[in-house]
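Review form for a predicted model. The reviewer records the input and the model, then writes brief findings.
Reviewer: anonymous (R2)
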Amino acid sequence: MIVAISFITYVIFALLLSGRFAASVPASRGIGVSAGIAGWVLHGWLLYLAILAMPGLALNTGSAMSFVAWMIAGMGLAFLTRPAFTGLAVLLVGFGGLGVLLTGLGGPGYSNPALEWPLKAHILLSAAAYSLLSVAAALAVLLAIQDDRLRSHKSIGWLRHLPAMDTMESMMFGAISIGFVGLTMAVFSGLIFVDNLFAQHLVHKTILSLASWLVFGILTLGRWRLGWRGKVALRWVLGGFVILALAYFGSKIVLELLLDRQWGEVVY
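Model under review:
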């Protein structure tokens, strides 16, 4: 029931802020924002019940995706403080609507009652960093589409509802900077807290995470020292994100759905 209500309120938010109601009904923005916040709060409560309510931390594939989508939707709602960002906010909050439908999918997940708070913090920090870098990747895709439309002299269509390209590029690099700091803390705290990479099925995740960290580190350095932007920067952003997605969700899907194993689970 919570899933259905949350999804419906997300849909109401999208319809009222992006549809014809936004122009014809003055109160539509206020109602839409309220619906979006309500859907986000319900989504958060659902995640609490699915992940944190039981001892330990139960974070299966579906709930992990849902948690990342919830954080992205929260960033989208924050963008509503600036009316010019409404179009971008609708896109980001839309991830929340898709994510809430995935909550709990992929098996029961692995919950270790003895899981200590540093490892819990590492897991949640990893998800937060992934969320920020996901927003950066989404902005990179939108920038690439805008650039292609402008260079080919095509109509920008729905892209006219997005902020200016310079603004979006600045937002992208801001998300990368904060996300890279979070990813650095997540990767190296994981190396400290994890006992046995092989026994806990974390080798592939760790190697790919380090590769992604290296890509985003080079991009950050290139932006700072060489002024990278445009297509060069977009390629590095998307490349780093793809590697990070494989590190987190790729390895998690293979373990849970194909091998019936979990991160951190030691099988003797």
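Findings: The two ends are 39 Å apart (CA to CA).
Further findings: DSSP finds nine helices and no strands in the chain.
Recommendation: see findings above.
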